[in-house]
Write a structure and sequence with these properties.
Blueprint: E1 7-11, E2 23-28, H1 36-44, H2 48-53, H3 56-59, E3 66-70, E4 79-84, H4 91-105, E5 110-115, H5 120-130, E6 149-153, H6 156-181, H7 189-197, E7 205-209, H8 211-217, H9 220-225, E8 234-241, E9 250-260, H10 280-294, E10 300-310
Parallel strand pairs: 1-6, 2-4, 2-5, 5-6, 9-10
Antiparallel strand pairs: 3-4, 7-8, 8-10
Length: about 350
């Protein structure tokens, strides 16, 4: 799995700013107020930072935007990235700002001067998520250093504690992205199930049902999708018991079609290569379960993913075929919008 870049939090030490290599990021409020670290950067750069925030271009920036001062005087850093952000910025705004910062900062060393920012851990999470790179199958030189991310804050221990569960979230996101990015000849149904089974080391209980098991349960609808493939259909169940034993679990269900040709009803050639992502739902469920286990969530959660490959062959399900589906108890389906609100 692609490991998220590590983030360390340290107490603000303005004496170390001049010696920092790579890039230095400083936060300035929309009204141009400089904190202690920003004033130090301004002095080292012979007033360049103050000239920037007093310019017309700064007044046109929105929270989350940034400007870069390349090769600043008096510093070893190759650039100073000046991030426009309110001190009391919320979680979403802070994450977006961190992602914007990581986009220009690249993969090298980054010293982030967060000062008294209200949510420095959220800002760091944005940086970590934006730094994701999938290089598993690249044959070119991939030795580019991933660098280090150091966040200087007023209360480093408190920020580190706040970031700990977010690091688990980042790991889950990276895991899901890896699954979605893998080509279908590498992420077969068997390989997918193996990666899920490996998460037992995190404390998850994982059960993988094979085709014989699903036949006995009457899962004809799921099995019919994979009839035409040499890759066996599977159903993976991930269980996390972090809440009270009497509490009913929350169920997460994801579609895991590792490649969807359309079967007998073959899809158009244009865009067919993207059908390797038809298992994105299952990837998200697996990433969520990994994050839940990583942060030791106090909840009972079950993740279920059907893993199949839809291919055309003499055994493929035909249009008009009658298939049977298992019967079960009624479950409550919870839908949310993009912001996580119930709809």
């Amino acid at each position: 799995m692609t490991a998220p870049i590590a983030v360390s939090f340290a107490e603000t030490d303005i004496e170390k700013i001049a010696e920092a290599k790579g890039r230095v990021a400083v936060i300035v409020t929309p009204d141009g107020k400089l904190d202690t670290a920003a004033r130090r950067v301004n002095r080292l750069g012979k007033g360049a930072l103050k000239r920037l925030v007093e310019s017309d271009s700064w007044s046109k920036l929105r929270p989350g935007d940034l400007r870069t001062l390349a090769w600043p005087a008096g510093m070893q850093a190759e650039a100073v990235d000046v991030l426009c952000l309110e001190r009391n910025a919320g979680a979403v705004e802070s994450r977006k700002a961190g992602a914007a910062l990581a986009r220009v900062a690249g993969q090298g060393d980054l010293l982030l001067l967060a000062g008294s920012l209200k949510q420095p851990a959220e800002l760091a999470l944005g940086v970590v998520l934006r730094r994701y790179r999938f290089t598993e199958h690249k044959t070119a030189d991939t030795s580019e250093p991933s660098g280090t991310v150091t966040v200087m804050v007023a209360k480093p221990d408190e920020s580190q504690e706040m970031f700990a569960p977010m690091a688990a979230i980042a790991e889950g996101v990276h895991f899901a992205r890896d699954l979605v990015s893998e080509p279908a000849n590498h992420l077969t149904t068997t390989e997918f199930a193996t990666r899920i089974k490996d998460m037992e080391t995190l404390g998850l209980k994982v059960t993988v049902l094979e085709e014989n098991d699903m036949h006995k349960l009457g899962m004809g609808a799921l099995l019919s999708v994979g009839h035409g493939s040499a890759s066996p259909s599977k159903l993976a169940v991930m269980e996390w018991q972090g809440g009270a034993k009497s509490d009913a679990p929350l169920a997460l269900v994801g579609k895991g079609v590792v490649f969807d040709t359309g079967g007998i009803s073959l899809k158009p050639a244009a865009g067919m290569e993207d059908m390797t992502m038809d298992m994105g739902g299952a990837g998200v469920v697996c990433g969520a379960m990994r994050a839940i286990a990583g942060r030791k969530a106090k909840a009972n959660v079950v993740g279920l993913v059907g893993l199949v490959e839809n291919m055309p062959s003499d055994r493929a399900t035909r249009p008009g075929d009658v298939v049977t589906s298992m019967k079960g108890d009624t479950i409550e389906v919870i839908n949310t919008d993009a912001e996580g609100r119930l709809v």
